[in-house]
Design a protein that fits this description.
The chain has 305 residues and is α+β, with helices and mostly antiparallel strands. It is 30% helix and 27% strand. The protein has two domains: 12-185, Trna Endonuclease, Chain: A, domain 1, CATH 3.40.1350; 191-303, Aspartate Aminotransferase, domain 1, CATH 3.90.1150.200. The chain is built from nine helices and 14 strands. Strands 3-4-5-6-7-8 form a six-stranded mixed sheet, with helices on both faces. The protein has a six-stranded antiparallel sheet with strand order 9-10-11-12-14-13. The mean pLDDT is 90.
Length: 305
């Protein structure tokens, strides 16, 4: 999709400035991982097994490692390469933990990682129709992102969305041991998997919150993880755990940061909990809908001032 700049009420199409080397994409993305993906940079050119991983990142919300690969060439299989990377990760977990701890101040322990949420991200200026079609599975731990550079220092980054209503990746395993092995340990969660078996009234309550939260900003994205559904924009904003009879909501603010005049939320800073942030509330109806949404907006504004 072309980009335009406004010049005296007229549109001028921006000239594309293609990346000459994969390394250009890599350096740009590594310096801006948080802004682009909400990820923590771990290391570059990490060697493990028979692979050299371009960028190793960590997803704090999912508590999982993310492998990022940059591609200028088009002749590669996203399925074969993606699952090979994931298989290597699962075979060398201690190496990934060691790599994190050697590059970060905070120590990471095995209990801090959810290996089932691991994923691979391919970044390229373009993908073929075959590569785009290859991600049409409802449980694929692989993402494709197209990146383009334009004149006036502009970048576009677009996620290629597959047909998530399609079949499972397991349907094409057919004895392919790498796919079978990875699929047993890595689980891709979706909104529908969280909503499965949930009564209509709770489903409706979630949908109302979802719509209102997304209306706060066009840049807010939904990210289902193992225990909850996360809403993020350059970092986590609010998490919702969908239960049979209620919703549990966590606002990502540290103790003392949220102006909760009604004292509706409880402070869970010293209590084990799933979501991000120190504020938690459990609701089964929309009695406090507007007030909760007000607090979410309040926190969002504080985080984005």
């Amino acid at each position: 999709m072309p980009l335009f700049s406004i010049q005296k009420e007229y549109l001028k199409q921006l000239e594309e400035k293609p990346f000459k080397l994969e390394k250009e994409m890599q350096k740009l993305c590594e310096k801006n991982l948080t802004a682009l993906f909400g990820l923590e940079f771990v290391s570059t050119e990490f060697s493990v097994g028979n692979f050299r991983i371009d960028t190793l990142a960590f997803d704090k919300a999912a508590k999982a490692f993310v492998i990022i690969e940059y591609k200028k060439v088009k002749k590669f299989s996203v399925i074969d390469q993606g699952f090979s990377y994931l298989s290597t990760m699962l075979d060398n977990k201690s190496d990934f933990i060691l790599e994190y701890n050697e590059n970060k101040i905070a120590g990471l322990q095995r209990k801090d990682i959810d290996w089932s949420q691991s994923r691979v991200v391919f970044i390229s200026p373009s993908f073929t129709a075959f590569q785009r079609g290859a991600i049409n599975f409802n449980d694929l731990p692989i993402e494709l992102w197209e990146i383009k550079r334009y004149a006036n220092h502009t970048i576009s980054l677009d996620l290629i969305v597959g047909n998530k209503a399609s079949e499972s990746i397991k349907s094409i395993a057919n004895g392919r041991k790498v796919i079978e092995k990875v699929s047993k340990e890595i689980v891709v969660h979706t909104e529908e998997s969280h909503l499965e078996g949930v009564p209509d009234e709770i489903r409706g309550l979630y949908e109302r919150f979802k719509e209102a939260i997304l209306d706060i900003s066009d840049s807010i994205k939904i990210k289902p993880v193992k225990r909850y559904i996360s809403f993020s924009d350059k970092g986590n904003i609010v998490d919702i755990c969908i239960q049979k009879k209620s919703l549990k909501i966590w606002i990502n603010a540290k103790s003392g940061e949220l102006d909760d005049s009604k004292k509706l939320f409880r402070n869970v800073s010293d209590i084990g909990h799933w979501g991000n942030g120190d504020y938690e509330v459990q609701i089964s109806d929309d009695k406090y809908f507007e007030y909760i949404l007000f607090l979410v907006k309040q926190n969002y504004i504080l985080k984005h001032e």
